[in-house]
């Protein structure tokens, strides 16, 4: 009954919101290592029912990017007008000032730190949302994560670390669970072998192109150190009977880090309705194949991934 009431409330909010302006309000949510971290809340006026919330992390290879780039505006507006409170966050960019002479070993440590501090900031932003949930009209049992590229990596990593009892996740409220994860060209980074889930994670919607040379579609690792992408994550979810939707696109590159946010926004909203609100335990996979598409490489070495992302001029 509660799920049905929430669904009805979202429909009412969405019907009212069609002609409404989306309100954007900026908040300071933390200061880490001397850096002020801000977040933008996008929402429309609604009824008394608490709404789902989507926390979003931007892309940029942990080097650049911005939380309010116009690239994401269609996504934020669509979700907000569908009755979802959107929270787009700053996070620390751990690879922003890479030394020019850094080697593979040094890069591993830098990457581990970059991913970890981004996750720490996601957890901090989550706590800020929970603390303001009543005044913002947020249902704390329906807080989701979403991200593009590096932001998708951080989002997947945050849920994986939470599921595996990582010490950093203990800052979250006792018993807290994310309600869903929407990842556009994301992966999990580990320096300790293939990642597994100790507990069943939140439902995941995974978008990824098979020819992505920025973030591995499957995996890219050396001696157990590396990135494990959407295909690998989907296999793990299938093994443990966890709900997921895996959308892969044959011979498509890193463009799927962004295009699903507007081209497949209807699918994202349907995922939220089915998996998050209705709690349907589906396992679905969709393969997009374009007629006459040019065949492109689908396997890359770790060195090639690093070169694509961090090649020096």
List low-pLDDT spans.
Answer: 4-16
For the largest sheet, list the strands in their spatial order: 1-2-4-3-5-6-8-11-12
What radius of gyration results from the CA coordinates? 19 Å
Q: What class do helices, strands and sheet pairing give?
A: alpha/beta
What's the end-to-end separation, in Å?
58 Å
Largest sheet: 9 strands, mixed
Structure explained in plain terms:
By secondary structure, the chain is an alpha/beta fold. Helix content is 34%, strand content 25%. The chain has nine helices and twelve strands. A nine-stranded mixed beta sheet has the order 1-2-4-3-5-6-8-11-12, sandwiched between helices. A three-stranded antiparallel beta sheet has the order 7-10-9. It is globular, with a radius of gyration of 19 Å.
Topology, pairings included?
Elements: H1 2-17, E1 23-32, E2 35-43, E3 51-57, H2 73-81, E4 85-89, H3 104-131, H4 133-136, E5 138-148, H5 150-163, E6 180-184, E7 187-190, E8 204-209, E9 219-222, E10 225-229, H6 230-239, E11 244-249, H7 260-263, H8 265-277, E12 283-288, H9 302-310
Parallel strand pairs: 3-4, 3-5, 5-6, 6-8, 8-11, 11-12
Antiparallel strand pairs: 1-2, 2-4, 7-10, 9-10
Helix pairs in contact: 3-5
List keywords for this structure.
313 residues, alpha/beta, nine-stranded mixed β-sheet, three-stranded antiparallel β-sheet
Short synopsis of the structure:
The chain is an alpha/beta fold and 313 residues long.
């Amino acid at each position: 009954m509660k799920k049905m009431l929430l669904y009805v409330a979202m429909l009412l909010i969405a019907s009212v919101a069609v002609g409404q302006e989306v309100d954007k309000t900026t908040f300071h949510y933390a200061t880490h290592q001397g850096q002020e971290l801000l977040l933008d809340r996008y929402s429309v006026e609604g009824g008394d029912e608490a709404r789902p919330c989507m926390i979003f992390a931007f892309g940029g290879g942990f080097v650049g990017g911005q939380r309010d780039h116009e690239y994401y505006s269609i996504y934020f507006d669509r979700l907000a007008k569908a009755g979802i409170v959107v929270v787009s966050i700053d996070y620390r960019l751990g690879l922003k000032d890479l030394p020019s002479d850094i080697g593979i070993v040094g890069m591993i440590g830098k990457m581990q730190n970059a991913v970890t501090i981004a996750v720490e900031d996601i957890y901090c932003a989550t706590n800020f949302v929970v603390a303001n949930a009543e005044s913002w009209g947020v249902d704390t049992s329906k807080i989701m994560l979403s991200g593009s590229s590096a932001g998708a990596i951080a989002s997947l990593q945050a849920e994986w670390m939470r599921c595996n009892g990582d010490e950093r996740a203990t800052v979250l409220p006792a018993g807290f669970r994310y309600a869903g994860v929407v990842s556009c060209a994301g992966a999990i980074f580990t320096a300790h072998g293939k990642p597994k889930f100790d507990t069943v994670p939140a439902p995941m919607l995974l978008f990824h192109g098979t020819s992505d040379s920025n973030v591995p579609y499957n995996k890219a690792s050396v001696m157990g150190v590396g990135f494990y992408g959407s295909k690998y994550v989907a296999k793990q979810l299938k093994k443990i009977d966890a709900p997921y939707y895996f959308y892969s696109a044959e011979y498509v590159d890193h463009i799927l880090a962004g295009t699903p946010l507007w081209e497949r926004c209807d699918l994202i909203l349907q995922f939220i309705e089915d998996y998050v609100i209705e709690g349907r335990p589906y396992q679905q996979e969709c393969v997009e194949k374009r007629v006459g598409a040019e065949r492109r490489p689908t396997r890359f070495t770790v060195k090639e991934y690093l070169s694509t992302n961090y090649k020096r001029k």
